[in-house]
Design a protein that fits this description.
Strand order of the largest sheet: 1-2
Largest sheet: 2 strands, antiparallel
Bound molecules: Phenylacetyl coenzyme A
Helix content: 55-70%
Radius of gyration: 21 Å
Strand content: under 5%
Order of helices and strands: HHHHHHHHHHEEHHH
Length: 311
């Protein structure tokens, strides 16, 4: 009966073992995973746009090749994540519809513009840095397909962070104008990067349950602190500052203290009022519509190929 199934599910979670697609799971667990994995997939796909803005203007052939590869990696991450969500009984078409009708979210961070080449560096360093901090623990998520997708994604994100750091290092140690451009990008991306981790724990409706289910392994505030502690020494190596006068080492806590985050900005951006929300979603819907013939051709090819194999 249901009690027995629930007991087995709870025991699997308690033993730190994985839940797999064919296992029974409570509906809330399934819905939470669909929500989180879909939002994560949407973020990867929408997240291609800010950096793609610079592919045609990358400052050298090498930088262009690296950036092309990075943006393609993000598309790949989106595809693994949609595949992981599909194991929970939703279709990719349904998830696209939920994104396009604004019923599902994508990360707040991708609603900010990339104004200069240094923004590509700042995204790699800070946004991919935040992504790794959040995603490494997701490799131990209790849901098998999500955890396994995260392993490869994290390896690629580490390369992405390194390339962002490299762009900023070069700019920071370049001409005064280049240094200033790097500093300006970091000033603009710092606070939005801290918001990527989600609302503070006492205002996060999903954290407690997701921790109990082993979906999240750390709270939003714990991960935000880990990120700050990782980034501050890297900023020193870059020769750049972070735009927070209250940022300082706290020997008692063994962590960096940081100033207050403007949560009204976060809620405005996730509510659709960020600088680029309209543009990002419009571009996404246009690309999806314009690509309909490719999906139709691929489906027709697969159907024909299937018939030939059967014959
Ligand atoms: N943006 O109760 P919580 C990348 C929503 S990295 C938008 O704390 P939860 C790599 C949240 O969904 C970025 N919405 O929720 C890359 C919920 O709304 P709902 C993607 C946010 O789920 C780099 C409500 O607020 N990474 O793409 C945000 O327990 C460069 C309440 O929040 C992931 O998605 C936000 N920042 O914790 C690609 C990681 N924060 O659903 C291209 C996986 C919160 O009730 C270029 N996701 N919300 O309507 C997670 O770890 C979690 O879902 C959190 C939120 C931590 C994001």
């Amino acid at each position: 009966g249901l009690d027995e199934l629930t007991a087995r599910f709870e025991a699997t979670i308690a033993a730190n073992e994985r839940i797999e697609p064919r296992d029974w799971m409570p509906d809330g667990y399934r819905q939470t995973l669909i929500r989180q994995i879909a939002q994560h997939a949407h973020s990867e796909i929408i997240g291609m746009q800010p950096e793609a803005n610079w592919i045609t203007r990358a400052p050298s052939l090498l930088r262009k090749a690296i950036l092309l590869a990075k943006v393609q990696d993000e598309a790949g991450h989106g595809l693994y994540l949609y595949a992981a969500a599909e194991t929970l009984g939703v279709s990719r078409a349904e998830l696209f519809e939920l994104l396009h009708s604004r019923k599902q979210k994508y990360s707040s961070i991708f609603n900010y513009p990339t104004l200069t080449w240094a923004d590509v560096g700042a995204i790699g360093w800070l946004v991919d840095g935040a992504a790794i901090t959040n995603q490494v623990p997701l490799c131990r998520c209790s849901y098998g397909p999500y955890a396994r997708a995260m392993i490869r994604i994290c390896k690629e994100e580490s390369f992405h962070q390194r390339q962002g750091f490299d762009i900023l290092y070069r700019l920071s140690h370049g001409t005064p104008a280049q240094h200033e451009m790097a500093q300006d990008a970091v000033n603009r991306w710092w606070w939005p990067s801290l918001m990527m981790f989600g609302p503070p724990d006492d205002q996060s409706p999903h954290t407690a349950q997701s921790m109990a289910w082993g979906i999240k392994r750390f709270t939003n505030d714990e991960l935000r602190q880990k990120f700050v502690d990782m980034i501050v020494p890297q900023a020193a190596v870059l020769g750049l500052t972070l735009p927070d006068p209250q940022l300082r080492w706290n020997p008692e806590r063994g962590h960096y203290d940081f100033g207050p985050i403007d949560w009204s900005e976060f809620y405005r951006v996730i509510g659709g009022g960020g600088p680029c929300n309209e543009q990002r979603l419009r571009h996404r819907i246009e690309a999806y519509t314009a690509g309909a013939w490719v999906r139709e051709a691929a489906a027709a090819y697969a159907a024909k190929h299937g018939q030939r194999t059967a014959a």
